[in-house]
């Protein structure tokens, strides 16, 4: 039960992070590149401060750290810039679909393939997500945005896999953010030059970086070693559903039958992939 609650809290943090990012950019409070920069900076400062307060240590020079920091940067840059041209539904579908496929592919190649039940559960959950989020009425997905979100999904999938090897979730996440900071800033500055900031935009980015990203990712790294890789990939398909339901409750958006059916499929698929059959 404790693992379930911690995992659920992590998914809520991920969904809250998406809502903060979307609201800040859509309200023109901040541009996507600046949001990503402030986000990673706030996360790095907060997590490094917590590590120093407990007199811990951060490891920077290792293959695991390069993989963690590099994949985190890839996710942050791709995620922020993709929403310049993608609508929220198509973006979420691409991101979490690619995350799941990346994790399944890597684990299959490394000798730990998912079981048939886990594959079926993942398929059911992905079908539910597609039912809710797939663009309708002939809407086209921008290829540049799709490529950026695909890169973000690969980055987050690798980041998740690397996290299974972390012995200290807080120190590892803090070091990843510190390593990702210069890479993310450099990438954003090279790719885009549009900058506009407001007090509200900076505040939203700081909350996103320090709380829903930094602390949320540290919690994710803590629960990852206790989850099967296939389960860790499938359970993240709940994030877009949580975000849509939260938007309906907090922003007054109407709930539809498609949303209800899709949410049931996603949750049912996650349960099928996660729960152990009775012996």
Automatic annotation (TrEMBL):
Sequence ranges assigned to domain EamA in this UniProt record: 145-274
Residues in the signal sequence: 1-15
Predominant place of localization: membrane
Keyword NADP: no
Alphabetical keyword list: Membrane, Signal, Transmembrane, Transmembrane helix
Pfam families, alphabetized: EamA (PF00892)
Protein name per Swiss-Prot or TrEMBL: EamA-like transporter family protein
Membrane topology qualifier: Multi-pass membrane protein
Subcellular location: Membrane
Transmembrane residue ranges: 34-53, 65-86, 92-112, 119-134, 146-162, 169-190, 202-220, 227-251, 257-275
Ranges in coiled-coil conformation: none
PANTHER family cross-referenced by the UniProt entry: AMINO-ACID METABOLITE EFFLUX PUMP-RELATED (PTHR32322:SF9), INNER MEMBRANE TRANSPORTER (PTHR32322)
Cross-referenced SUPFAM superfamilies: Multidrug resistance efflux transporter EmrE (SSF103481)
Membrane keyword on record: yes
Organism name: Falsiruegeria litorea R37
GO CC annotations, alphabetized: membrane
């Amino acid at each position: 039960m404790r693992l379930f609650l911690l995992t659920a809290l992590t998914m809520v943090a991920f969904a809250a992070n998406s809502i903060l990012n979307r609201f800040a950019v859509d309200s023109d409070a901040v541009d996507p590149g600046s949001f990503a920069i402030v986000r990673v900076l706030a996360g790095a400062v907060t997590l490094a401060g917590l590590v120093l307060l407990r007199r811990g240590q951060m490891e920077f020079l290792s293959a695991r750290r390069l993989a963690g920091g590099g994949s985190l940067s890839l996710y942050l840059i791709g995620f922020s810039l993709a929403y310049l041209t993608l609508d929220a539904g198509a973006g979420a579908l691409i991101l979490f679909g690619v995350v799941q496929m990346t994790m399944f592919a890597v684990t299959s190649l490394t000798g730990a393939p998912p079981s048939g039940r886990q594959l079926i559960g993942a398929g059911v959950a992905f079908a539910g997500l597609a039912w809710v989020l797939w663009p309708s009425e002939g809407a086209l997905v921008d290829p540049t945005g799709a490529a950026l979100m695909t890169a973000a999904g690969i980055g987050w999938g690798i980041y998740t896999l690397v996290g299974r090897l972390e012995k200290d979730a807080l120190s590892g996440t803090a070091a990843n953010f510190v390593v990702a900071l210069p890479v993310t800033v450099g990438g954003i500055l090279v790719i885009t030059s549009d900058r506009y900031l407001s007090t509200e935009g900076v505040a939203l980015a700081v909350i996103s970086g320090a709380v829903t990203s930094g602390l949320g990712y540290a919690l994710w790294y803590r629960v990852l070693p206790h989850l099967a890789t296939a389960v860790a990939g499938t359970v993240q398909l709940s994030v877009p559903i949580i975000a849509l339901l939260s938007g309906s409750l907090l922003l007054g958006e109407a709930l539809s039958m498609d949303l209800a059916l899709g949410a049931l499929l996603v949750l049912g698929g996650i349960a099928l992939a996660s729960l152990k059959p009775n012996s």
